[in-house]
Amino acid sequence: TSGGSPESWLWSFGDGESSTSQHPVHVYQAPGVYPVSLTVRNPYGTNTLSEEGAIAVGMTPAAGFSAAPREGTAPLSVRFTDLSRGSPDQWSWNFGDGSGASEKNPAHMYLEPGDYSVSLTVSSQFGSNTRIQSNYIRITAPHMTEVSLFGSRTGSLLPGGYLQFVVTGTGGPIKIAGSEYPIRTGDLVQLFPDNVNTGEIDVNERGLTRFSFSNVRLFVNGELRRTGTVSDVTIAGISGVQSTFTISVPEGDADTALFADGAKISNRELAAITISGLMPDRAGRMYLSQKTGDLTYRGGASGLSVGEQ
């Protein structure tokens, strides 16, 4: 409101437009920050008031995103990248499997096979917008052979592998290096046994109930949390169980009995046996016992070869 009873007004809106109305209405056509000035005049003189950045014009954001990879076997970690326009400052993701995120560029682990639609809603002070991409992520079941191996006197679990899973149930403690470490819902857990000469693994309908190895490295959500002997573990409700473990039985082991998908595998030549990618079978069970002179395995595997090195 100008004082001094002006008789004329000249507005400059900062976008090349102006007005001589006392109370003008102006429509800005493009986003930006605009200075505004007003010059008033009466018989006694003129006066100008200018304000830098007086008007900020934004645009409603437009949601957009990409993902990589978009296909793979379960469990699969997918990285989502925000490609939205209009400078949003809030993000709401729906990954299509009952979970979501509010980060700008989240990663998500898909645990079960299926086609998943993904949506992203972006918001700013100027509004919100949603983008939905139907059947955007495709997760397939990994190839799996149900394997049973008994009585091997010379077979062994090879070093360098690990067991991985995501906690979808209540979780529970793992006792490692003499003290308990809590495993919680949503945690991605990786167990690396550095000494596999003796040990036992038991995955069943209750979860992970045994992982008795010495010198185990425990990673939770990608970070090393503890190292030592695992003496007790009960982690309830796990999904996406996979491993990089490999069993090797050298040639000449006459005591080994091998079954694949319920059928006994003949090995009269006593050829070498390799079982790779150990995982739970169709019933969700996986059991391994490694002792001196005695190896037993019941579960699934992504690879099985007899007589091939």
Report the C-alpha radius of gyration, rounded: 32 Å
**Which parts are unreliable, with pLDDT below 50 for 5 consecutive residues or more?**
none
Strand proportion? over 45%
Q: End-to-end distance, in Å? A: 89 Å
Shape: elongated
Mean pLDDT equals 95
The assigned structural class equals mainly beta
What percentage of residues falls in helices of 4 or more residues?
A: under 10%
**H/I helix tally:** 0
Please, how many domains? 3
Main sheet, how many strands, which sense, barrel? 17 strands, antiparallel
Order of helices and strands: EEEEEEEEEEEEEEEEEEEEEEEEEEEEE
How many runs of DSSP E, i.e. beta strands? 29
Question: Would you mind describing this structure in some detail?
Answer:
By secondary structure, this protein is mainly β. It has three domains: 8-57, Sandwich (Immunoglobulin-like), CATH 2.60.40.10; 65-140, Sandwich (Immunoglobulin-like), CATH 2.60.40.10; 145-306, no CATH class. 0% of the residues lie in helices and 61% in strands. The strands form four sheets. It has a 17-stranded antiparallel beta sheet that branches. The chain has a five-stranded mixed beta sheet with strand order 6-12-11-8-9, with no helix packed on it. Strands 2-1-3-4 form a four-stranded antiparallel beta sheet, with no helix packed on it. The termini are far apart.
